[in-house]
Each structure stands twice: as structure tokens, then as C-alpha cells.
Write a structure and sequence with these properties.
The chain is of the alpha/beta class. The chain folds into two domains: 87 residues, 2-Layer Sandwich (TATA-Binding Protein); 278 residues, Metallo-beta-lactamase, Chain A, CATH 3.60.15. It has twelve helices and 22 strands. Strands 7, 8, 9, 10, 11, 12, 13, 21 and 22 form a nine-stranded mixed sheet that branches. Strands 14-15-16-17-18-19-20 form a seven-stranded mixed sheet. The protein has a six-stranded antiparallel sheet with strand order 1-2-6-5-4-3, covered by helices on one side. The longest helix has 17 residues. It is globular, with a radius of gyration of 21 Å.
Length: 424
């Protein structure tokens, strides 16, 4: 008897079709659920031999993780929609659910890494230098950022003493778009000789999803290459689910949304498959929505409201159409990190959500203008901006994307690049 058959009597109504979460993981949704009924069925799971490994509540949303029969089971209740989700996962590695004592040897630092934007206006990479001098990496860069796997490696190498191996205590991938995963794939293929990675963290929507015909076919190929590289690396993979709280070095993370929460709404916009993380460390909250877009935004706003309040936020979907203006009002972040080029973010200044995020922000940093270091806890105005390393290849952009700028625009842009420390 399958897991869901065993508990088919739960609640009065369920989704008529179970959701394939990918990686041999399935979910069933129940509607019209009371909190009391949710707790009654959670207790039934325990009485059936499933052992609670974690309970973590976020803004009134109640989450249980249970283990049994070779499964990691997520059972969580959302009062805003009076619904419960039951997820059976036979794939995931374990998470650390207790704070981890670390030997503090350095400051905790958050870097918005300057990905190579010469030919592309997307991609993002954030690097957190933990207090034990290990690193937590978020996403990577586009395949057009040709050498960024080497640049990421060299950046980590420069902060790793002597002959010690680079220690990446965790690498999180927000979703499976090529501008987020390609240079992680290349890092695994070409830069692992002096690197140790403890775990990968992600939950990609499966390419068999109902809405997959709307997705870029080439993107599926990049994901296959990524999965192959991860499997061959032997690094354990944590399949993240909403409601989990986990620890990496001196960092605490909460999972606020995955593609499992968007279902059954449309995921035709693949960006809505982004996993959203809240990071807490050194009395600082940092919100990473990845490329979360309209459907994800609805989930986040309805469930969490003011819990989204944070000190630092990554601008969703590079400042293209992503989360809503209301999302940024709830977040009310005084520091905004924008993983994009100055040209493109200025061109999209008309987007209402960007206007709200900028209006609230006291500090706004664009990744293409140079890597930014924020030492945590963050003191306003203390950001260190590294020299700008890359600038637009206007001839290449015209050939690839068929858009161009005036000679005067390009001259002024190159002058500003040099002023930021860049070399033409």
C-alpha cells in the first residue's frame, strides 16, 4: 500500500490528482481544513510510526517534518487558505535542525558577487562567508558569463588560507534556469580539485510538470547537465520543502516557498518555481526570493505578511517582472541588492514593484557595478564596493540580442565603468 493510500481518509476533500514534486516525491493538498483537524491527523501519522524530527511554525503556518518507512514527510497547515499539504519525499538528504557551534575565525560577510554581464543582463551569485571561514553560495551565473566558475573559485580561494581546501558548507540553487545553475555545473566539472562541498540545497520543479511546454527547451538540457554533474560529484542533496528551518555553520535558514506551494496555480512562468529563503545571522534578516514571480508572490504575501520584514533583500527576478509591490512593502528592506546591470534596471524603472523597493531602500546596490561586501551585523553605510571587473560588450550584445545604444551612451557608460575601477 502506498503512503497516500494508507492515509487516503485524511480530511473531507483532497486534490483529485496528486502532485509530482520530482525526485520521487509526491504531494497531496487538502482544502477546507481546520487547525484542530490538522493536528488530529498529524497525531495519526505519529501513531502510525512516523516520528517527528522537526516542528517549526512560521507566522502562524504550522509545519511538521516526520520520518518513517524510508520517507521524509512534510505536513503543514496554512491558515490563510485553510489548507494542508502532505509531502512524501524518499529522496532528500537530512538537514541540520539544531544550531551548529562554530569556531569563529572571521566576520560573517555577505557578498553580492559581480557576475560577468558582458553579454547577458541576468544571472546572480551571492556568497556568504561564514564565521568559521566556510562559504554558503547562492546560485551562480549564465553560460554566457563564460569564465565565472573560475572567477567564483578564485574569489573563494583568495579568502581561504594557505593550502587549505575551499570549504563550501552549502550551495543553494533557487531554481533551474540556466542563468542560475550553469556556472555551478561548470564549477563541479572544472574547479573541484581544491574544493569540498558539504551539501547542495534545492527543489527544482520536474520537467514533466503540466506546464512544461511553456519552458525553454534548451533549459531542460542545462538542467540535465546539472543533475549529472551533481550526481557524479557525490555531494548529498537536500530537497527543500516549505516550513523547514535548517542551519549551515552560523547561518539559520527558513524555507518560505517552493513550486509545491504554487501548485495548482500556473507555473507556465518557470520563475514561479523558485525556492524562497529567509536567512538569519548576526541579528540580521536577509530575504532571497530568487526569481519568484506573480504566483509565488501571492503565496508569500497571503501566508507571511509582515513576517517578510527584513534588513536586506535581493531584488526578485533581477528587477524584471517578479514579486509585487505589496511584497516589498511587507519586506520594507532598507538595503536592496539588485542582480542586474545598471542599464537594464534603469530601463525597467517603470515596474511598480521596483519603484516601491527603491523608495523604501536607503541603500541600493547593482551587482554589475562591482562586487559588494556587507559585513554582518550590517551597519548602515558600511558596504564595501570592489572595483568593477566587467562591462557590456556592446558589439557582442548587438550580435546576440539585436539591440544597440548610441555612441554617446556607450562613451558615457565606459567612462563610468573606469570611474568604478574598471579597465577597458
Amino acid at each position: 500500500m502506498s503512503f497516500f493510500e494508507k492515509f487516503s481518509h485524511f480530511f473531507a476533500a483532497a486534490e483529485s490528482e496528486d502532485y509530482d514534486c520530482g525526485d520521487n516525491t509526491s504531494m497531496r493538498i487538502y482544502y477546507g481544513v481546520s487547525e484542530n483537524a490538522f493536528f488530529e491527523h498529524e497525531k495519526e501519522l505519529e501513531n502510525s510510526g512516523y516520528v517527528v524530527s522537526q516542528r517549526h511554525d512560521i507566522a502562524g503556518n504550522i509545519h511538521f517534518t516526520l520520518k518513517g518507512d524510508g520517507l521524509t514527510v512534510q505536513f503543514y497547515y496554512n491558515p490563510s487558505s485553510s489548507s494542508a499539504r502532505l509531502v512524501a519525499d524518499s529522496y532528500t538528504a537530512d538537514i541540520e535542525i539544531q544550531e551548529i557551534p562554530v569556531n569563529r575565525v572571521c566576520n560573517t560577510e555577505l557578498f553580492q558577487f559581480e557576475t560577468d554581464h558582458s553579454l547577458i543582463d541576468c544571472g546572480m551569485c551571492y556568497i556568504i562567508r561564514c564565521a568559521d571561514n566556510s562559504f554558503f553560495v547562492i546560485d551562480s551565473a549564465h553560460f554566457y558569463s563564460v569564465h565565472d566558475n573560475d572567477r567564483i573559485h578564485d574569489f573563494l580561494r583568495a579568502m581561504t588560507p594557505g593550502n587549505e581546501k575551499i570549504h563550501i558548507s552549502g550551495w543553494f540553487l533557487s531554481h533551474g534556469h540556466d542563468d542560475h545553475i550553469c556556472k555551478c555545473t561548470d564549477y563541479l566539472l572544472y574547479n573541484m580539485k581544491d574544493t569540498v562541498i558539504d551539501k547542495f540545497y534545492y527543489n527544482f520543479v520536474p520537467d514533466t510538470h503540466r506546464d512544461n511546454e511553456n519552458w525553454d527547451g534548451a533549459g531542460k538540457g542545462f538542467r540535465r547537465s546539472f543533475y549529472k554533474a551533481v550526481k557524479e560529484s557525490g555531494v548529498p542533496v537536500v530537497k527543500l520543502h516549505t516550513g523547514q528551518r535548517f542551519y549551515v555553520a552560523n547561518l539559520e535558514f527558513e524555507v518560505l516557498c517552493t513550486h509545491e506551494d504554487v501548485w495548482p496555480a500556473s507555473c507556465a512562468d518557470y520563475n514561479n518555481s523558485s525556492t524562497v529563503l529567509m536567512m538569519k545571522t548576526e541579528n540580521t534578516k536577509v530575504l532571497f526570493p530568487g526569481d519568484a514571480s506573480a504566483e509565488s508572490s501571492k503565496v508569500l504575501e497571503s501566508r507571511y505578511e509582515n513576517y517578510l520584514k527584513c534588513d536586506i533583500i535581493q531584488l526578485s527576478h533581477h528587477g524584471h517582472h517578479g514579486t509585487s509591490a505589496k511584497f516589498y512593502e511587507y519586506a520594507a528592506a532598507p538595503v536592496v541588492l539588485c542582480p542586474n546591470t545598471e542599464i537594464k534596471i534603469n530601463e525597467e524603472d517603470h515596474i511598480p514593484a521596483n519603484k516601491v523597493a527603491k523608495a523604501i531602500a536607503e541603500e541600493f546596490y547593482i551587482s554589475a557595478n562591482g562586487t559588494v561586501k556587507l559585513t554582518l551585523p550590517y551597519v548602515p553605510g558600511s558596504a564595501e564596493i570592489y572595483p568593477d571587473e566587467t562591462t557590456e560588450n556592446f558589439d557582442g550584445i548587438k550580435q546576440l540580442w539585436n539591440y544597440d545604444y548610441t555612441d554617446e551612451f556607450k562613451r558615457r557608460h565606459n567612462e563610468e565603468f573606469v570611474e568604478r575601477g574598471g579597465k577597458l
